[in-house]
Structure formats: structure tokens, C-alpha cells
Design a protein that fits this description.
The protein has 137 residues and is an alpha/beta fold. It is built from three helices and five strands, in the order αααβββββ. The chain has one domain. The longest helix has 17 residues.
Length: 137
């Protein structure tokens, strides 16, 4: 299984490196990238998050992960900003989004709390790999 995962990761990286970066979506020239807050509205799967990431190399990784998570769930679930954690989904499930080293410190002892973890392939108990939320299409 690990060998297959390594193959897929290498194939992904090869394709990513071979992807031309000269193409710009139609909104590229219409957006003032120096604005403090930029919102892009569009249907699910049209590339909103990809455009934000590709066009802003200095984007904070944490912000990108949270944006990805929010985009994936907000299409078919109610998403709120709770006092603790990053997102409350359907008024029941609390999520904290972070990197591989993220801990439950911020949401410990809260029922139905989960970590959405970036840079990890396999989840365990209440730790869910962030990439899995991309399968919600």
C-alpha cells in the first residue's frame, strides 16, 4: 500500500512540475491583488481556491487550507464560525484545520470535534486528512 501511495505522490509531483503556469483565468486582470480581502464567488469545482493559491505565491498555507475546507463544505452544509475551533458544521461537528503537527489543544473536551490535517495521507480516529474533503464533489 505504501508503495502505491508513493507512486501516486510522485506522479502528482511530476504532473504538477510539468503544468504550465502561463495560463491565467479570466478574473486575473479584474482583481486588485493588493486588496486586503478578496472574495471569489462561483459554482463548486470551478477553481476558486486554485486561482487564489496559484495567483498569490505568498499566501499563508494555513489560510489556504481553511479556504479549501470552507469551500468544500459550504456547498452542501451549514458552516459557522464558533468560539472554539475553526468551523462548526451543521451546528454539530467542530473542526480545527491545521498542519501535520496540529493537536486537539484548542478543541479538547468538546464533543464531536475533529482535526482536518494537511500534509498527511492517513487519518486515525478524529484526525481526518484534509485532502479527503476534496472528495465531496
Amino acid at each position: 500500500m505504501e508503495e502505491q501511495n508513493n507512486y501516486l505522490i510522485k506522479a502528482f509531483r511530476r504532473r504538477l512540475l510539468a503544468t504550465p503556469t502561463t495560463f491565467h483565468r479570466y478574473l486575473y486582470t479584474d482583481i486588485d491583488w493588493d486588496d486586503t480581502l478578496i472574495g471569489i464567488k462561483g459554482p463548486k469545482g470551478c477553481g476558486k481556491t486554485t486561482m487564489m493559491f496559484a495567483l498569490t505565491p505568498n499566501v499563508d498555507t494555513g489560510t489556504l487550507c481553511e479556504t479549501f475546507f470552507m469551500n468544500q463544505l459550504s456547498q452542501s452544509h451549514e458552516v459557522r464560525y464558533p468560539a472554539a475551533g475553526d468551523f462548526l458544521i451543521d451546528r454539530k461537528y467542530l473542526f480545527e484545520v491545521g498542519g501535520k503537527g496540529k493537536t486537539f489543544d484548542q478543541i479538547k473536551d468538546i464533543e464531536n470535534s475533529y482535526l482536518a490535517i494537511d500534509n498527511t495521507e492517513i487519518g486515525h480516529k478524529n484526525r481526518i486528512p484534509l485532502w479527503m474533503f476534496g472528495l465531496l464533489y
